[in-house]
Amino acid sequence: CGSCTMEQDRNPYAVTQGASRQRLLRLINQERCGSSKIADLLRVSENTVQDDLRALEKAGLVKSSAEGYVPAFAIFTLDDQRHLQPLIERVSRSYAHAVEQAMGLVQAAYDDCGLAERGFSFSDMAYILVGAYILDYGGLDFLARSGLLTPTRSMPGGRYVFVGYEGQLFNLRGNWMFGHNYQFGPFVFSGHGELPAEGGRKAFPDHAYRWWAEGRPEEEGEQLMKEAGHILTALCRGARTLQALRQRTGQSADRIQEHLQRLEELAYVESKDGTWRSWCPVVVPEDKACIRKMVEEVWERLLEQVVNHHWKELAERYAKTAPARNGVDIREAFNPLHHAFFEDALRQLMEEAKLPYPPLRPDGARYAIWVEQQGTEKASAGA
């Protein structure tokens, strides 16, 4: 949870790839071991173990003590997951119930933002407001300010909280918890919901990440995204012709057509009768105050009715897990557990038709897309 570098020697996903390092992490998650004992138990050379430990230490993913090495992040074993599952089920039901009771506040925020006048129904916006703004980003922010959760921490490769799950008890790729967002100039491009069965999303910002992975200069990619943001903002209050887009954005016709072709392929816009309209909601600066107020009101209820009510049991159950034995603070562990709570709550709300599913996208996954206009040119990242 957060943002990490693409540099392979400090990227936690790259550093933990490979069977040997995962076997090592699994072993030291269960017991503190020195390099020689790790080599004996894994039946590999001590030089190999030391190379792996150096790589993991460089990325900030293991730490050593007099008793040996341990993971520096939470790795939940299968036993841990089974031990926590009853609590996850109870808390997620409580999250879902509290959100259902607060849907009037969500509807009021939608009305206050005037999104209907921009052509986006409450059904278009409900998943974004509930799944992303309330349960995910709003929850991380509110719980962090309440002193209960670590949203990110400084790591050699960025600011993030990293977590591992042993085995396949949780189908992470099928979960409704994945929010990807990145700021390009004054525009934050976001996607939230499922991941495709394979690869990244055919949406922004994932599409821009692929440009960088392919070697396109970051400055060029940022300029393209800023231009796309201006086009989507110009379309957010109604359909426009190519000539109208030229006047609104100051971009050349060829440049606009290049963007529109890409945006149409990614199902952000559609053309009809010589005009273009957007399928991508734009949250403008004046919207954010009412959304923020609504999120605070919902989370005041969730804190009182759910989190505080279950915190003692959470602490007791967590104390019996491998991450707790390895010294991972409960506030850091609450980050992935909160994700598990709200993901299951979202699933319940959608299955019970209390919340619309996000749309089916061209890559076969269901997730919401939107752009938030910041009113500032400073760039930042998040995921």
The shape, in one word, is globular
Q: Specify the helix fraction band.
A: 40-55%
Q: How many helices does DSSP assign? A: 14
Uncertain runs are: 378-383
Task: Record the strand order, biggest sheet.
Answer: 13-14-9-8-15
Structural class: alpha+beta
Mean pLDDT: 94
* Number of DSSP-assigned strands: 15
Q: Using only CA atoms, what is the Rg? A: 23 Å
Q: Major sheet: size, sense and barrel closure? A: 5 strands, mixed
Order of helices and strands: EHHHHEEEHHHEEEEEHHEHHEEEHHHEE
N→C terminal distance: 6 Å
Portion of residues in beta strands equals 15-25%
Written account of the structure:
With 383 residues, the chain is of the alpha+beta class. The chain has 14 helices and 15 strands. The chain has helices at residues 12-15, 19-30, 35-42, 46-58, 78-101, 103-113, 122-145, 206-213, 218-235, 242-249, 253-265, 285-318, 322-325, 330-351; strands spanning 2-4, 62-65, 68-71, 74-76, 153-155, 158-160, 163-165, 178-184, 187-193, 240-241, 269-272, 275-278, 282-283, 367-373, 381-382. The chain has a 5-stranded mixed beta sheet, sandwiched between helices. Strands 1-6-5 form a 3-stranded antiparallel beta sheet, with no helix packed on it. Strand 2 (62-65) and strand 3 (68-71) form a beta hairpin. Helix 5 crosses helix 14 (330-351) and helix 9 crosses helix 11. The longest helix has 34 residues, at 285-318. The radius of gyration is 23 Å and the shape is globular. It starts with a strand and ends with a strand. 41% of the residues are buried. The model is unreliable at 378-383 (pLDDT under 50).
